[in-house]
Amino acid sequence: MKTTFKIIGMTLLVAVFATGVSFGQQLPQFSQYIFNGLHINPGYAGYKMEPYIQTTYRSQWVSFPGAPKTYTVTADLSANEGTMGFGVSLMSDNLGPARTTGGLLTYAYRIQTGRNSHLGLGVSAGVTEYMIDGDLLDPNDPNDVDLPQGRVNLFTPNLNSGLFFHTPKFYAGFSVYNMIGKKALEREDVALAYHDFHYYLTAGAMFELGDDVGFKPSFLIKEVKGAPTNYDINAMFVFYDRIWLGGSYRSNVKIWNDNLEANLSNRNAVAAIIEIFATDRLRLGYAYDHNLNVLQDYRANSHEFSVGFYMIPRTAMMKNQRWF
Predict the structure, then answer these.
(1) How much is the pTM?
(2) 179-208 burial by CB neighbour count: b if 16+ within 10 A, else e?
């Protein structure tokens, strides 16, 4: 198909080089996932041991037309004395003329594996809609029969699963996303609407550096067919159990034979992150991503905002410091 899209052409080219987030082949990324595990693992549901709601807005590559914008709302709670966790996730991800929206319901069964350790086995299920608006395309050949006419919508079921283990000072998780629904999206007229298995492996720990200072290192590895293996290395400091300051380094590496064969820079981006408990219930977060790849000279950086709200005051649950 010999066409050039003024709106999405540059965006998709950049997505290939940046390997940070690309529509269809990769799920949206978040810099603040370390404070909301539901974005990457259904086994996380119920970890906080109390009702919690969070909304996140991410604007990526702000100076590019049609750049990705992602909005999510998640909620989770525990029941039956913490042995069960429930969650709800809503997402809208926009990239040029393409949009992905979805909703998931999550259930996690939490097993106490030790005096202060638990293992959550979670599953989330829902529906995802992929849409592309052909009227927003500006091709060289307007008579190309392969171009979608008007809006084209596809719906597919979705299923994710995950394990989440944690103690008061350590956590580790593994999850698989997009386990079903791929065949429903193999349509040439909506080539962007295509998803594959995503694998997430993450772990982190909390170290006390003093009475009022803690240090939390963590990492995330993401694997999806057709893209390099992505990894995040994170380091956060917590002061007085109220202010979190730190950052992330995000990059990629070719490991498997089906990773992209391209001249990709191993450097990707760094992120500065701050989280503040404005009150005992209200949590505010902000992340600023700076590119270290082909976009570094274009000032096409990213901003991410989050607002979280605990239904129960923090002072009521001193046993769970919510480090993760």
Answers:
(1) 0.83
(2) eebeeebeeeebebbbbbebebbbebebee
**Closest among 9, 7, 18 to 302, alpha carbons compared:** 18
Q: Are 248 and 273 in contact (CB under 8 A)?
A: yes
Residue ranges and CATH numbers for the domains of the chain are: 9-316 (2.40.160.40)
Query: What is the rounded CA–CA span in Å between residue 280 and residue 322?
Result: 12
Instruction: Give the span between the Cα atoms of 230 and 301, in whole angstroms.
Output: 18
Residue type, 217: P
Cβ–Cβ under 8 Å, residues 196 and 176:
no
DSSP 255: -
Per-residue pLDDT of the chain (324 residues; tens, 9 = 90+): 333 333 333 333 333 333 333 333 467 888 888 888 999 999 999 998 889 999 999 987 776 767 789 999 999 998 888 899 999 999 999 887 888 899 999 999 999 999 889 999 999 999 988 888 776 666 555 565 556 667 778 888 999 999 999 999 999 999 999 998 877 666 545 545 457 889 999 999 999 998 899 999 999 999 987 778 889 999 999 999 899 999 999 988 877 655 555 445 555 789 999 999 998 889 999 999 888 765 555 566 889 999 999 887 655 443 445 667
Q: Which structure tokens are listed for 86?
A: 């429930």
Buried b (16+ CB within 10 A) or exposed e, 103-130: bbebbbbbeeeeeeebbbbbbbbbebeb
